[in-house]
Amino acid sequence: MADSLQSLIRHTGPRTRLRWLTPEPGTRRPLRGDDPNLSGQALVGSLNCIHPNRLQVIGRAELVYLAGLGPTAFAETIEKLFSDRPTAVIFSDGIEPEPLFWDWAERTNTPLIASPVSDEELINQLRYYLTHALAERKTIHGVFIEVLGMGVLLAGDPAVGKSELALDLISRGHRLIADDAPQFARVAPEKLEGTCPEALLDFLEVRGLGILNIRAMFGEGAVVRRKTLNLIIDLKPLDQTQLDRIDRLAGSLSASTILGVAVPRITMPVAPGRNLSIIVEAAVRHQILRIRGYDAGVDFIDRQARALSNDRPDPPDLRASGTPGGSTVSTGGQPPGGSRPGPTDGGA
Known about the structure:
single chain; alpha/beta; Udp-n-acetylmuramoylalanyl-d-glutamate--2,6- Diaminopimelate Ligase, Chain: A, domain 1; 2 domains; 16 strands; 32% helix; disordered C terminus
């Protein structure tokens, strides 16, 4: 894991072409820093003396800015840069630092690093790598498998049938990511990425068969290195009382929080005679529809409500009132209790 400056340069060297300008530190230099007050600093970015980065990158735009400062302001800016104790100062675009940078690097024991890569490309490469290398991680017991393009974690108690179900899904064309101990990293605010430890890569344990090499048995297309976690399916043997508690419309959908990220979770009853592979595929398809904004349970309820509304008899017409004989009496526009004067009224 690239948790130090030395390991970062070793791991990213082929892409970033970073090289030491000052001698490589003899002791490990952590990227995050040892001071708790510095934990909120960004890991890498262009020169910023207000919100300093752990890795300060100086490119051509920064050089133009510094060159426009007066001698006093230039010296104060360089002093501020190094007094913030960055992990390193990196010069992109093949820039050679001025003598004042060397002087302050020696005073503060701050490494100087150079790269011929442009500052924008360099920062993008370092950010992408550090986001994955330094992400929060957690190992969860289960089998992590790709089903219909979705990352699905098969969870449950030992010997409940997770590996057998995974093997059945693999034989149906789905792909294995990790068995027994998948590692999940929070690589974005709402994204968990699951991978397999190197020691377990390609292997699946099935009780009675032992360890199987899925890549050797099913080919390269049967395994994948990493996948976003989209759904957890919890396999559980349930008695009749527990089954009766499951909502018949909404099912057993809930959510689990892993590293601060909410992940949809479905409790799947395990019982003899149930084709769990088909049910898992249906659960994944159902979840894909939910992501797209469609929920069959809600649609079913709405459809029943419309059917009940259409079958309801029309209310009686209140604009007219019936007489005992069935005829309708009209007032002819006369006010209640009044009579219309005849043509001879008042003249006879």
